[in-house]
């Protein structure tokens, strides 16, 4: 496995693979890898001959300096895990390499319609930072396929639209959220939870499942469902940040044309912000009369 920090040697390796007719898969990460990330790597392996993983804590997508500073950095451990998975290249650029002229003087990619709503409305500039760094990484790695987790549902939607709008020849492969045994979505931030907070954290997923069951049962008073969900989170000691119930395809409010909804939620446990989501099929189930 090669560990490459500079753009030029990465491009040389990519060109060599291209000459050999190799299919390239890419998994962008910010490090502090867990089984969720490794699941992305394994899916990438299923879809390509060689796998590139990037590790870069992207300052452009953080809206708070203390959140950026607190983000866990475990490069040596991450490289060891990726070596075990047989990854061909780990790309580890620095901020100076990614933004040589500084972020304030840098061109950026913005995805209208998706970047400024929901999570993007509460964290202005976040998805612009995500789209910009991913587009740069795509240009450096030039993959055939790239794998992204469904846990970051809006991020996945932003990336898919960016690829479509910019006509990038890259297949985006969504990978289902990987969860702990108790239902908590795996996240690099989970390691910042205290023992007590970790015991309470699965309530976020439990609340999503409850809202989903209510919707499948016919409830469509979505504003009330959000309030009920917030009450459940507070009762367990979590501080709700936001719960949205939207069309899973457009991220717009539910309409009569919506066939699949998504519940997106974020909540705080002390200083740790947890996010999760769950999709709900709203298509009425047609009864099978063949056996009557």
What does this structure look like?
By secondary structure, this protein is an alpha/beta fold. Helices cover 38% and strands 20% of the residues. The chain contains eleven helices and nine strands. The protein has helices at 7-19, 35-46, 65-70, 75-84, 95-98, 119-122, 126-141, 153-165, 195-200, 203-216, 222-235; strands at 2-4, 24-29, 50-55, 89-91, 145-149, 171-175, 239-247, 260-269, 272-281. It has a six-stranded parallel β-sheet with strand order 1-4-3-2-5-6, with helices on both faces. A three-stranded antiparallel β-sheet has the order 7-8-9, with helices on one face. Helix 7 (126-141) crosses helix 8 (153-165). The longest helix is centred in the middle third of the chain and has 16 residues, at 126-141. The N and C termini lie far apart (61 Å).
Produce the secondary structure layout.
Elements: E1 2-4, H1 7-19, E2 24-29, H2 35-46, E3 50-55, H3 65-70, H4 75-84, E4 89-91, H5 95-98, H6 119-122, H7 126-141, E5 145-149, H8 153-165, E6 171-175, H9 195-200, H10 203-216, H11 222-235, E7 239-247, E8 260-269, E9 272-281
Parallel strand pairs: 1-4, 2-3, 2-5, 3-4, 5-6
Antiparallel strand pairs: 7-8, 8-9
Helix pairs in contact: 7-8, 10-11
